[in-house]
Structure formats: C-alpha cells, structure tokens
Amino acid sequence: MSETVTTNGMSRREELLAVATKLFAARGYHGTRMDDVADAVGLNKATVYHYYASKSLILYDIYKGAADFTVDALHDDPSASAREMIYHFARRLLVGIAGNIERAAVYFQEGPYITEWFTEEQVAYIREKETQVYEHVRDVIDRGIASGELYDCDSHVLALGYIGMTLGSYRWLRPHGRRTAQEIAVEFSTALLRGLIRDDAVRQSSPLGVTVEADTLT
Amino acid sequence: MSETVTTNGMSRREELLAVATKLFAARGYHGTRMDDVADAVGLNKATVYHYYASKSLILYDIYKGAADFTVDALHDDPSASAREMIYHFARRLLVGIAGNIERAAVYFQEGPYITEWFTEEQVAYIREKETQVYEHVRDVIDRGIASGELYDCDSHVLALGYIGMTLGSYRWLRPHGRRTAQEIAVEFSTALLRGLIRDDAVRQSSPLGVTVEADTLT
C-alpha cells in the first residue's frame, strides 16, 4: 500500500504515531486502548491495525525513535574539546526534547515496564542505545581528564548525572517557554563546566564550604 | 486497634506500605491489585482494608512520605553559604533515596497520573511541597548571586536542573553500589559549584569552547 499523506503533511502512519504518543503520555500505555487511538486519529480500528499489528509495536516505534535520536545527538567530532562535546550534546538533546516532549515523557514513564511489552530483541536494541549514550558521555569526560582539560572526577557518576539533568528536563521544558532549549543547554553546560562559584580561591579550596570527611552525621 | 509490631520491628501498617511500594515500583500502580498486596504481605484482604480503605490511600501515603522527606531535606540554616546549602540538599536527598529507592521510583513513575487517583486536596498537598522544594533551591541560588558568592545565572533553570539531576538518580543509585550516596552528592555539587574546567583562563573566557550566538544551525 502506498503511503497516504494527510493534510498536515504527515503520512498516516506518522500521524497515528503522533496521536498515540500524546495518548500514552497522558494516560499511560496501559491505560490507552487501540480503540482510543483509532478514535483520536479518526480511523477505524482495522486501518490502525494495518499500520501497527499491535499496540506494543506503536510503543516500540516511539522508543526506537527516541533512542535513535539520542544516539544521533552524540557529537563525535574527534577534534572537538571535551567542553564543546558536553555542550553540543546537551543542546541537541534539549532541542530534540522541546520538539517532542510527549515522546520523551512516554520513554521515561514506561521505562520500568518495557520488558513486559517488548520482545527480548527489542529490549536489547533499546538497552544498547542507552549504553552507547552513557559510554559516550563518560568517555568524553575521561578524555577531558586525561588531556588535562578537566579536573579529575568520577566520570561514571557525572555522566549519569548530566544525562539525567538533561533528559529529565522533559518534565518542565516547554517549547514556547521563557527560555529556549538552546538557552537552557547553555545554562546547564556553563554551570557544569565553569562552576557557579565566582571567587577562584574559594572555588579551589572549599567548593562545598565544608570539610566533607567530618560531615557524616546529620 | 493497637499497632501490631511484626518480627522485623515494623508495624503492620509500615510493612504493608513497604510491600505495596515494592509492588507499585515493579508493576506500576495500575498493574497492582489489592489482592497482590494482601498476598505479598501475607494478610487477608479484609485486614489490608482495615489499614488502608483503598489502594489510592496507600499510594498517597507513599507520595506524602516522599514529599515530606524532600522538604525536610532542605537545609535552612541562615548562616550557611549558598554552596553549603546546595551540597547538603543533595547529600540528604541522595542518602534518603538510597534508603528507599522504590519510594522514589513510585513517586516519579506515577507522577503524570496522580490527578486520576488522588483527591484535589491530596494533589494540592503534594504540589505545595514540590513548589516549596523548587523555590527553596532557586532562592538559595538567588541569594548566592546577590551576595556575590555565585556567578549570575538563571536560578530557575538551574534549580530545576539540579533537582532533576539529584532526584533522577533513583534510576541508577544502588544502596550498596561502588559509590555511597554521600560520595555521589560530593561529585554532583563539586561539579556544579567548582566546575569541571581546570584552566582558569579557559574556564572564564570560553567555558563551552564555542561562541554560542553563532552556533544555532546544527
């Protein structure tokens, strides 16, 4: 069957995916039936099943799209500095999230349950992409430490934290908010790379304002 | 009825709450029935209903516990510096999350749907606590900017980012992992407050390694 293009320029399949993404984001995958998807997109259920043989295949398309997008956001220019790569990663991710908040929401909301809905191969594909993203950010930090550009730090923990800070923004990022996605990326990466403390002596000698070793009781 | 204390020192109600939290975290609130909770805790359903008249009251207890805990983690010592407050907030939150990963997981996983399960008053209570936490972190950053301790920055965006980085750690934080919760708090707050770039000239003149204004195309 040839692709039917709808009035908004999306193919029927793309439109179906966009509508299902909104429904899953609002009601959860478990709380959305194929009937709801058919109603919302204005097709009969048989036509919906023509495009997607099961509800889980829609969910997988959402996951695959988000995972592939995130891997594509990795900035793999070998001549770039660690700080450039950290900034560009945040910028591309945030712009992408702002352009499809619901997809990011579904991705995180359904994450704990995907092994229930997906085949082993599907789960393995998603996990492999997630590992690629984590390892890329960790390796960028490690290379920055090795070259002397960055302070020695726990690249594992910071990669997880920075990815969480960036991807977690789907909770409050709004495409037409006070700040653009790019401005938010600048704020995040500047804070992480330059730090917030002005006074260089304070910054180097006492960044947390306390002696951490003695501070385990409260 | 007097509280029955079980062999592990928890009251029956606490035990019920802990078991339900684990089930909700693994299967989702929607996917867990009161029968499952009764089976898992080894009580009959009537006894479960004695403690919690509905499944949503269990979920609310989980939410209220997490929200109250997070507000209690705010460090409100007026003599503390902004950097001390930022560090202590992360430390208390991470230690608390490490002590009850499932509670944090339920809190985030069910977040988009709580208006379905909770009364308006219950939702308002949770939202008020969340607002208190956000405003506290934002105000700490604002006071740090005003006193000259911190660089000028977008305190709104950074408060949301820092809270997301910290709370989002429930996804990968493990109570007996390679790093303790306190060590992770030190990594996060050091990166944010001191920054990652070593060279002070680079750090101040070109923290992102690019001129941001010209960089809007790729």
From TrEMBL, chains A, B:
DNA-binding region range list:
33-52
Does the keyword tRNA processing belong to this entry? no
> Is Metal-binding tagged as a keyword?
no
Q: Which GO terms describe its molecular function?
A: DNA-binding transcription factor activity; transcription cis-regulatory region binding
HTH tetR-type domain segment(s): 10-70
Kindly give the InterPro entries that the UniProt entry links to this protein.
Answer: Homeodomain-like_sf, HTH-type_TetR-like_transc_reg, HTH_TetR, KstR2_TetR_C, Tet_transcr_reg_TetR-rel_C_sf
What Gene3D superfamilies does this protein's entry cite?
Tetracycline Repressor, domain 2 (1.10.357.10)
Kindly give the PANTHER family that the UniProt entry links to this protein: HTH-TYPE TRANSCRIPTIONAL REGULATOR RUTR, HTH-TYPE TRANSCRIPTIONAL REPRESSOR KSTR2
Query: What protein does this entry describe?
Result: TetR family transcriptional regulator
